[in-house]
Amino acid sequence: MFKKRTVLALVIALSAVSSPLQAKASPYPAAQMKDRSYYEERGDIVWEVPTEEKYMALTFDDGPDPQQTLKIMEVLKQYEAKATFFLVGDRVERYPEVVRQELQEGHEIANHSFRHPSFQGLPGNVMEDELIKTQDAIYKATGQKPVLFRPPGGYYNEKIIHLSKEHHLQMVLWSWHQDTNDWRSPGVSRIANKVLNNARNGDIILMHDFVHNSNQTTEALKIILPELKKRGYSFVTISELLSHKVAPKNHIKVSH
């Protein structure tokens, strides 16, 4: 009996020591336990937009780039497509003229952090600095501040959701069935087929306008855009897509 009590006391003591360390290692554990519907229903995060009309939103991360972004915009212009560009702040500072051209051609610009770090494990003040510096860089380049934010890699937790709201930014991710993985340069046909084979109303398509030594995204767009236009789709900015959101239907019980 003495031995059992001693072992039990040791276990309790070790638990008391280890618990604070576990809490410190995972400061937002609750965020990992809540599913997508929790954040979607609250409007905290947008993955796609339910709409009855044939609208889609093309999004491009990691730019601007003075070569790839301009080539992508040429294709978009050819097919009368508007897009949303999630910009990296330090690249905005290097290529402000590209950002201004995006706006002039009717595209939407959005925040994608300043140096594109992984937000996983970042302290809150560093996350906030990434948001603020990008907002400031875009404002300096264009006189406008974005209203949308996409975290690098799509990583989120309770802290970054809170910071986004605090800075009046709507967090936007992408349709899970429309991640083209174009940043891996998987081949033009793979990128195009990913979009074409999964096309649905309200899709938010994830692409990139800065991929090292690759023009596959541009070439894939030359296949995607004419084909989806034939199917009746229009390509709009995220903000416009949100304006076409269909409210959930309330099931009203009628008594007789």
TrEMBL record:
Signal sequence residues: 1-23
InterPro entries xrefs: Glyco_hydro/deAcase_b/a-brl, NODB_dom, Polysacc_deacetylase_ArnD
Domain NodB homology stretches: 54-236
Keyword terms, alphabetized: Hydrolase, Metal-binding, Signal
SUPFAM superfamilies registered for this protein in UniProt: Glycoside hydrolase/deacetylase (SSF88713)
Keyword Flavoprotein: no
UniProt cross-references to Pfam families, sorted A to Z: Polysacc_deac_1
PANTHER family: CHITIN DEACETYLASE 1-RELATED, GLYCOSYL TRANSFERASE-RELATED
Name by which UniProt lists this protein: Polysaccharide deacetylase family sporulation protein PdaB
The species this protein was found in: Paenibacillus vini
